[in-house]
Structure prediction request, 190 residues.
Amino acid sequence: MKHFPEALLEKESPQHQVVFAMYRNLKELVDFLDKDYQKQSRALSHEFRGHILQISSFGAVTIGATAALGQNLLASDSLARIALFLLSCSVVWGLFHVLHSTERSAIIQEQQYLRIRSRIEQLVREHEKYLLNPNPSQEDFQQVSRATEEELVENKKEMTGGRLVPDPTARQIFALFALGIGVLLAAVLF
Prediction:
C-alpha cells in the first residue's frame, strides 16, 4: 500500500495533530497485523508437523504390531484382527483429520487477516484524505474519529472471538488408538 510522505500530512492545527497521530497508529497496526499473521502461520505449520509426528508414531506401532503378531495369529485370533483394524482406523482417521483441520485453520486465519487489513487500509486512506484537505470541517474530523473508534472496537472483537476452539476429535482418535492397543494386549495375553 502506497502512502503519502508524512511531511505532507503533518500540520499544526490541534485536530490535524490528533488525526495524524491516529494515522500513524493505524499504519503501525497494519505492520503489526502483517507480523502477527506470519507468526500465526509459523505456529500453525509447527503444530501441523507435531500432529504428523504423532500420527506417524501411531502408524509405526501398527506396523510393529502386525510384524510381531505374525500371519498365524492374525489368521486364527479375531481379537488380533480387531485390534489391528482399530489401530489402522485411528491412523487413517488421524491423518485425514490433521490435514482437514490444518487446512481449515489456515483458511480462517488468512480470511480474518485479509478482512481486517483491508478495513484498516481503507481507514488509512480516509485519514490521508482528511490530512490532505486544506480546510477540513469539524464534521469531517468527527467522522474520521468515529470511524477509527468503531474500527478498533470491531477489530478487538474479531481478534478475540475469531480463534478456533480446541477440537475434541483429536481426543477421540487417541481414545480409538488406545482401545486398539488394549484389544491388542488382550489378544496377545489371552
About this structure: The chain has five helices and no strands. Residues 14-76 form the longest helix (63 residues).
